[in-house]
Amino acid sequence: MKFQTTTLFTKHSTSLSPLRCSFLLIALTLACSVPLRTVTAADKGPPNQNANEVTNAGDEGASLAGTTVSVFASGLNNPRGLKFGPDGFLYVAEGGTGGFNPPCVVVPAVGPYTGNVTGARISKIGPRGFRTTVVDNLPSSQTSAESGSLISGVADVAFIGTNLYAVLGGAGCSHGVPAVPNGVIRVHANSSWNLIANLSRFLMNHPVANPNPGDFEPDGTWYSMIAVGGDLYAVEPNHGELDKITPGAGISRVVDISASQGHIVPTAIAFYNGNFYVGNLDTFPIVQGSSKVLKITPTGQITVFRRNLTTVVGLAFDSADRLYVLENTTGMQFPTPGTGKVIRIDPSGNRDLIASGLFLPTAMTFGPDGALYVSNVGFGPPPNGIGQIVRITVP
C-alpha cells in the first residue's frame, strides 16, 4: 500500500529524469546515472536484507497506515543536523557551497580539500516552511573534484536554554580554512558568533587508539551534536570518538569508540533515559546490515543496542521507547540517491518501515508536533540550493 508521496525535483529537472552524478560520502566516490526517486511513506514490499533483529523479530517491509511524507522546506545548501529551538522554529546546519582555498595538508583518498571561510550558514525555518538566515559567512570546504567535490561546513546545531551552538565540520587547515579551526561556536542574537571550543586542537592533542591512516583527517569531520544537562556532546566519525564540551570549561573525551570498535565511522547520536546512543555509517563498500547502534553510558561504557542496520546517519526516540533510525543508503554498495529509509524499532526489536526513497538524507529530529523532520539531499549534486527538509508524520 502506498500513502501520500512527494516527488523530489532539482533545478532544470523533472521527476524520474536521469541524473548524472558523482557523490562521495566521507571516503569514496560513487559515479552513477540514476532516476530521481519518489519519497514514499512505508512502501510495502519484500523486507530488506537487514530487516530483522538478531532475534529475528520484526519485518521492515510492513506498511503503516497514517504515515505521510511532504517537503517542509527547500532551497538549502547541503542541509545537515537540525533541531527545534525554544521559539518553535526549526534551525538547520548547512554544509554550504564549498570553496577554492588550498589546504596545508592533503588528506588521503579525498584530498586536496579546498575551502572558504565564508561559505556555510545556519538557517531558521518557520511553521510554513519559510527560510531565513540566522548566521552566514561560516567556513565551508569540499573534497577534490576527482572524489566528488563533496561539501562540509556547519555540521549540527544545539540549544542550551536560549543559547544557540553549532559544531563546525568543514573548517581547519586541512580543509583549506586555516583561519578557523573545527570547533563549537556560540551564535549570538545579532548574528555574530565566537569559537568556544577548538576541536581541531583537541584532536591533535588527544589521538584515538585506532585511527584509519587511509583517510585520516587531522581536523576531523565532526558530524552530530546534542545538548544534555548544560553540556554539549559531539561525535567525530573519522577518528571515532564521543566528546563532551562544557561552555566556558573546555573539552573532555567521553569515550574513544575506535579503541573497542575500530574504524566504524560513528555519526548519529541521541540521549535517552540517561544514556547515549550512537549509530555508525561504517566503511565502504557498503555491506547491508553492517551498521549498529551503540549504547554508551555517561562514563563511557559501550554495549551494542541494535544490530543489522545500514549507513546510520540519524537517531531519535519517541515517548513509547521506540527508536527511529535514518539510513542514508540501502541495497547498494556506495551512496545512492533514492535509497534512504527511516525505520522504527520497538523495545522488543520489531521493525516497521516508516519512509523510503529518501535522497541521501543526513540527519533527523522530532518536532513539537510529533512529526519527524529529515534533512534530505544533504549530500547532493550541483547546483547548490536543492537541499530539503522533509516532514514525516508518524502513527
What does this protein look like?
With 395 residues, the chain is mainly beta. Helices cover 3% and strands 47% of the residues. It is built from two helices and 29 strands. Strand 17 (241-246) and strand 18 form a beta hairpin. The longest helix has 7 residues, at 199-205. The relative contact order is 0.18.
Question: TL;DR of this structure?
Answer:
By secondary structure, the chain is mainly β. It is 3% helix and 47% strand. It has 2 helices and 29 strands.
Q: What proportion strand? A: over 45%
Strand order of the largest sheet: 1-4-26-25-24-23
**Distance N terminus to C terminus?**
15 Å
Mean pLDDT: 86
Largest sheet: 6 strands, antiparallel
Q: Please give the number of β-strands.
A: 29
Radius of gyration: 19 Å
Low-confidence segments = 1-37, 43-59
Q: What coarse outline follows from CA principal-axis ratios?
A: globular
Share of residues in helices: under 10%
* Tally of DSSP helical segments: 2
